[in-house]
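Predict structure. Chain length: 157.
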Amino acid sequence: MRFLLIDRITSWDPGRTATAVKNVALSEDFFDDHFPLKPIMPGVLLIEGMAQLGAVLLEYGVRRDAGRVVKCVLMIVEEAKFRSLVRPGDCLEYRAEVESVNEYGGKVAATASRNGKRVAECTLIYGMDGRSEPALDARRAALVSLWLQGLDGNEPQ
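Prediction complete.
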């Protein structure tokens, strides 16, 4: 199973900051088991949504600033806090801000909010992998382009 936990990127400054939205629907596969009569989005998937945004933010920042094509791999989740339950019908806003980056990896502060109130937060540390797989690279670029639709002048390079 593959989880795509971003519907659209709403602001985008590669290598610096980004925001995205995720509309949580009852039709999501994970609600079948978590939990059938009281559906709650698993906390690990909140982290995954924030991690997806943080990874593309770092990857495209490194591409723009250093001319390197890398894949970010989540290595460490620090200080994860969950403040409220997320249920079907909620609209989440993810925010990711790069705290540091070097040739080996990067650190991102991330939050998930609903109606302006924080539901989760964490610090994400990524390692960078410079290996290229053309088919995977093409699929990743198509996905990021889809997420960025509607943001003028911010298409990935």
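Summary: Strands lie at 8-13, 17-23, 71-82, 91-101, 105-114, 117-129.
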